[in-house]
Design brief:
This protein has 540 residues and is α/β, with parallel strands linked by helices. Helix content is 32%, strand content 21%. The chain contains 17 helices and 18 strands. The strands form 2 sheets. Strands 9, 10, 11, 12, 13, 14, 15, 16, 17 and 18 form a 10-stranded mixed sheet that branches. An 8-stranded parallel sheet has the order 1-8-7-6-2-3-5-4, sandwiched between helices.
């Protein structure tokens, strides 16, 4: 057999028919559809290590040259890991993921398989309120998980929930000690896992952005496939590659050239299927009408809020640059100058202050970080003084007390999600700092339980045990402050120092180790100094 050519309109019609017939489709995203491929920072950084000028290469040749450079012995996996974490920050939030995430939400793909090691797609999905674990599964073959692998066969996928699964064949750069040089070897070590992955051969496959250098190890898993293959790329695979052999022996339909570039393709595909610009949030989650209007000009890059004098003092103590005091509406705030490339201001606030919203709006920050304290759980291996960072916050309003075993009381829940871009800056930064500080500050990310009413420790423990067993901490205060801050700036994050350990029998009350708040303050400032917080765009 030989390949035939296809256009975007016919692919769109095919996907629409498959959706109506409930015939699942697998989307394969290769390296040319990922953040690493479009990272100009990567090409600029590695050009000085190349014997040939990368400026004369096209983007595909640049990418492949950079991959081969990184695979040389002169670069260790540790060096590669932290270099790529830093370089990839500016490559997220592209139109590719925006259009793709919208198509995934509309259920055109039930299985997404990728060799990309970035988190760009997850960030785009988070922006439209689709989150890992609750709305879709993420399966990384190289990571041992307590949960079993999600269904990868067509038959099981039709009836499974969540409605789609993301398989990251090469793992994820944000993982500790990521092994770049053996990124495609993880699934070869287990025969059972390899056979399970090969269930994907029975799917109809839309392959976008395949790169013969980066993606070669994925070919034996997916091919020869039993379903139809649509191959979308700028060019056909090299004739000496296994992928070329499969496209020749299989009835492949190809979309090549400029339209086959992943960014162009997904935008055109969305327009054919939907016809308008994808929303940034789902229609069922419209923006809150009570959100006050914002000026489009960000006066400050980062605004740090402290609720006590101890927190404010700790931040000022750990800041080594010049600090100037200013007064606004009768309140004092501190200009910390530049931390890294970002302008940073600090305020000690009272969440009940009726002028607080106006103060935040006047500064118009790009990011808000709130430093505070929280309770955590002794039986989960936490220690007093550890740092907790919520990726989601469950605002819980209880209507009746817990009595006996009747812990599942009627409740009103509102889940607040931390924007993935902000969260990713702290996740990646914490990995970098862990190496620099030799793990002196322990940071845990996860779900937070936050009560909107006064709650004692044991009642909180009972609620969490029954309603939210995966929670990493309990926020006894600052609920109103976070809600207010997030209403003015969505990019809002809590950094919590564990002050009390809640256990099954009795709370463990002891003083926080000396320097705990200072460690938290230094952690925040170090993360900001790594970069990614400055908004270079001119005011509109």
């Amino acid at each position: 057999m030989s390949i035939t050519h296809i256009d975007v309109a016919r692919i769109a019609e095919g996907l629409r028919i498959r959706q109506k017939l409930q015939a699942p489709s697998l989307l394969f995203l290769g390296a040319r559809a990922g953040a690493l491929f479009r990272s100009q920072n990567l090409y600029d950084e590695l050009s000085r290590f190349s014997y040939h000028s990368l400026a004369a290469f096209d983007q595909i040749a640049k990418f492949q040259a950079c991959v081969r450079l990184l695979e040389q012995d002169r670069f260790s996996n540790t060096d590669i890991h932290y270099t790529l974490l830093r370089l990839l920050q500016a490559s997220y939030g592209q139109d590719t993921e925006q259009y793709l995430a919208a198509l995934i939400r509309l259920n055109f793909f039930q299985l997404i398989v990728t060799t990309n090691i970035d988190v760009g797609l997850e960030m785009a999905l988070s922006r439209i309120n689709l989150h890992a674990k609750s709305d879709f599964d993420v399966f990384i073959p190289s990571v041992r998980s307590r949960s079993s692998a999600p269904p990868l066969s067509i038959r099981r996928a039709r009836d499974s929930y969540p409605p789609f699964t993301l398989v990251k064949l090469y793992g994820e750069l944000a993982m500790d000690r990521y092994d770049f040089k053996h990124r495609g070897k993880a699934f070869e070590s287990g025969t059972q896992l390899y056979q399970q992955l090969r269930d994907m051969r029975n799917w109809n496959i839309l392959m976008v952005g395949f790169d013969p250098v980066w993606d070669a190890e994925a070919v034996p898993i997916l091919f020869p496939c039993a379903g139809k293959l649509w191959y979308v790329n700028e060019e056909i695979p090299p004739e000496d590659s296994n992928m070329f052999k499969y496209t020749q022996s299989h009835n492949t339909k190809c979309l090549l050239g400029v339209t086959g570039h992943s960014e162009n393709f997904f935008q055109l595909l969305y327009q054919h299927l939907i016809g308008d610009i994808p929303p940034t949030v789902p229609e069922e989650h419209p923006p809150r009408k009570s959100k006050p209007p914002l000026t489009t000009k960000h006066q400050v890059d980062v605004l740090i809020l402290a609720t006590t004098e101890r927190e404010r003092t700790a931040l000022l103590k750990e800041h080594y640059g010049d600090t100037s005091e200013h007064t606004m509406q009768g309140k004092t705030y501190y200009d910390l100058g530049k931390v890294g490339d970002a302008s940073v201001f600090l305020m000690q606030v009272d969440e009940m202050d009726p002028t607080l919203g106006a103060q935040i709006q006047a500064l118009s920050p790009s990011w808000i970080i709130i430093l505070g304290i929280a309770w955590s759980f002794n039986y989960k291996g936490q220690d007093i003084g550890n740092l907790l960072i919520p990726d989601r916050i469950l605002m819980y309003k209880h209507s009746t007390p817990v009595t006996g075993s009747d812990a599942m009381v009627q409740a009103q829940r509102e889940q607040r999600v931390i924007p993935a871009e902000l969260l990713n800056l702290f996740k990646n930064g914490s990995i970098i700092l862990k190496k620099k500080t030799k793990g002196l500050v322990r940071v845990t990310f996860g779900m937070f339980f936050s009560s909107t009413e006064a709650i004692d420790q044991q009642t909180a423990f009972s609620y969490v045990s029954n309603i939210l067993p995966d929670a990493i901490g309990i926020e006894p205060s600052n609920t109103a402050l976070f809600s207010l801050a997030q209403s003015y700036q969505e990019n809002c994050l809590l950094i919590k120092v564990v002050s009390t350990l809640v256990d099954i029998d009795e709370p463990i009350n002891q003083d926080m180790p000396e320097g705990s708040l200072e460690n938290a303050a230094q952690f925040i400032l170090d993360i900001i100094a790594l970069g990614g917080f400055h908004d270079p765009s001119p005011p509109k």
